[in-house]
Hints:
globular; five-stranded mixed sheet; 20 helices
Amino acid sequence: MTLPFKIKNKAPLLYFLLILLATPWQISLPLKLSFWVFSIYLYFVLKEKTKEKGSGSWWLILPPLVVLMLTRTIPFLRWPIMPLGADSFIYKKIFTNCLQNPCSEKISIISNSLQFLGWHTPALLSLFYILINILVGLALFITIRSYFNKKAAYASLFLFSISITQFLAYWAFYWKLMLAIALTLSALYLLNKKSWLVIPLAGIIGIIHPAAFLFLIITILISLIIGKDRRYLSLSTLGILLLTLATNYQETTGLIFDYIQKSSQKDLLSNPELTGSFIDFKTYQKLALAYLSFAALGLIRVIKEKKIYPLAFFLSALILSLPVLYFHSRFIIFFDLALIILAAPLVAEIALKLWHDLMGKVILIAVFISLSSLVTYQAWLAEPLITTTSEIESLEVLKSIEKEAVVLINDHRYLPVLKSMTKNPVILADINTYKPLKPLYIYVGERSSSNILDNIALPLIKINSHIWKY
């Protein structure tokens, strides 16, 4: 097996080094040993690429799509008040306002489209968001098929559907990021096809979500450095940059300086607003354990076969998710997609090997049911911040409080929700030590401790079951 970059005959060493780096050391010793034994087994089974005839039956796309739709729908059925993360509450409020009055928010792209089609109900935002997430899976399917083959594409959709990381990203209601990811995957498909349509599509991505645009640009630049098709990539990069600067110069340059400035802040790792407010790498390793070994072997495979775009995708996601950079935890979503891309061809190969006999079929079905059940259970457990109508109703009071009043909370999770409900300052502070100089409203949510007001020295007036006034 010949590898480029002067690592000939060192594939086993590289693979096992990657496995050690990928190992989540926080898990129990028996689980670590199982992971290592499986990784060794996988290497010897898949170290040489096998060619299987056929492209796979079309029905293989249905099971992962069913899992995808089921897990994305469960939160809406179980928690109708506020199905997803705090952002869903905020955006639903903005979306409702945009349906009623013209607005400049980016979500007006959706509200205007729905109004044009004659739909005027806020409930359609939920349906639209589910469809966006399914669109990400389908964009991944099409892109993987162009990079590898149809069998790998089926495997990638399966991995996407059972990825708890992707579910958590969906649950957090990063609707702009989800839409931008679907378009970014489409742009990478166009790059592989050497289409100039990538230029206007990249411009649209830049308008929707700067982080996704940054990822796309760095992926293209890495492809330019390690690839051979430099003329097309150079002209595409130049076209994208010129279009971006011509249409959005001030915002683009401002975002560049802002990214550099925030990446250099000392409290980067401890400030959720700087990290991106998503899971960290240690948590991610445990969530992606099912396909880490496949991804490690897939990385060696794409280096060997000099598949530029999958490798560039991985390197770009790895760089941007480094903890020393601003917004790094949000790029773990891209990193998970990168591992899915690397793992998909290997998952497809081992599935084809097992499918030839009855026992293999039983194993495959059992694995699919187990992993699907795991992500479905996660969807069932994902309890939103606000689960009762009383909490929603109590927040309405904050719309009409004194202009000079301050709203205080002691749980940071409620911060985005309360900021969306009132124009007054909302502060996060310790109720027992805070000394108010102005009218003060204290919000205590269902998730907060029920006795936090017991020892407070201030004379408080109870407004409702969740709000007190000083």
